[in-house]
Amino acid sequence: MKTVSIGVFAYNEEQNCAQILEALLSQECRETRIIEILVVSSACTDRTDEIVNFIADSHPIVRLVREPVRQGKAAAINGYLSAKNPKADVCVIASADILPDPHAVEGLALAISDPCIGMAGGRPIPVNKGDRFMGFVVQLQWKLHHLISLRHPKCGEMIAFRSDLAERIPRESPVDEASLEAITINKGLQLKYVPAATFRNRGPETVRDFIAQRRRIASGHRWLRKTEGYKVATGSGWAIVRALISQPPRCAREWGWTAGAVFLEVLCRLFGIMDFYFRPRVHQVWRIVQTTKQSYRTEELAPVITDREAEHVPDQLWMPAHEQGGDSDKNNSPVSRRERVH
């Protein structure tokens, strides 16, 4: 039975930290065992630490690791790697503002059982409603992420990796999961996308927050290409176009919103280029995207379908199970990628 150490990273997450800890403590594990949940609190100024300590009083596997100064998520991950139980076989890390479904941890951990797999990523299910422009943009973003990952894994938001994969990641990295991808590939291991390991997340709900988040990521991917020579799967324009073509809009409104989403993404990537090359910004300490920090409401946590979208329902965006039907997803085969920039 594989043992699992979980790292949760929080900065002023009093609205979400209890929800994710409850979800992690309620994971259904038959072939794995969670031996610890470390919450790395990066100089929180709200009630995050108090809430985590209250839960830890009743659950000994929960432990608070407090950083006195907020130095960015890469530094928080390094703090977790230093503090984790050395007996763990697998590390699972997640931000405190996501909500894993009951089988997510075991699904990711079991993917690491293959000796060729170094890192695995789950499937984000955004709770943003698609009946408004920004909700549609967020849903489209993660739908494309899913379709691309089925061919070439892109791990993000909640990931698992071998406990001996890395002792630390570059402290200056603005894209921590992508840095771990690069380490995995450089060690000759493979990435795997596990679409059955689902978790909820909340995307930005304003254009301003979306641009702030996406330009940081775009700049971070440029940094990764320059320092490690590694290009993430979603960095391929052709891969994005191919995914878009496979899922055409269904009505005039969606055509307009899709055009708007493409414009926003291009704009954010241009801003990312400017940030990296012309007016360098320090992105490893993120500006908080406030609209992603709301608690999850009961109606947002309805069961979701896990359809084979690329093959069976090419016209669907993410929707709750009571609104759509669909077939179950099968894990994609592992893919090894070494995309070097020359």
Give an account of the 3D structure.
The protein is of the alpha/beta class and 342 residues long. It has one domain (2-301): Spore Coat Polysaccharide Biosynthesis Protein SpsA, Chain A (Alpha-Beta Complex). It is 37% helix and 18% strand. The protein has helices spanning 17-25, 48-58, 73-83, 104-111, 133-151, 176-186, 207-228, 237-246, 252-278, and strands spanning 2-10, 32-42, 62-67, 90-95, 99-100, 117-126, 158-162, 190-201. The protein has an 8-stranded mixed sheet with strand order 3-2-1-4-7-6-8-5. The longest helix has 27 residues, at 252-278. It is globular. The termini are far apart. Residues 304-331 and 335-342 have low confidence and may be disordered.
Quick description:
The protein has one domain (2-301): Alpha-Beta Complex (Spore Coat Polysaccharide Biosynthesis Protein SpsA, Chain A).
With helices defined by DSSP (H or I, 4 residues minimum), what is the helix count?
9
The dominant shape is: globular
Spell out the CATH superfamily. Spore Coat Polysaccharide Biosynthesis Protein SpsA, Chain A
Kindly identify the CATH topology: Spore Coat Polysaccharide Biosynthesis Protein SpsA, Chain A
Gyration radius, rounded: 19 Å
CATH architecture: Alpha-Beta Complex
Which CATH class applies here? Alpha Beta
Number of domains: 1
How far apart lie the N and C ends? 43 Å
* Overall mean pLDDT: 85
Biggest sheet strand order reads 3-2-1-4-7-6-8-5
Topology pattern, helix = H, strand = E: EHEHEHEEHEHEHEHHH
Query: What profile does the largest beta sheet have?
Result: 8 strands, mixed
Q: What level of helicity do the residues show?
A: 25-40%
Question: What is the SS-derived class?
Answer: alpha/beta
The low-pLDDT segments are 304-331, 335-342
How many strand segments?
A: 8
Content of β-strand: 15-25%
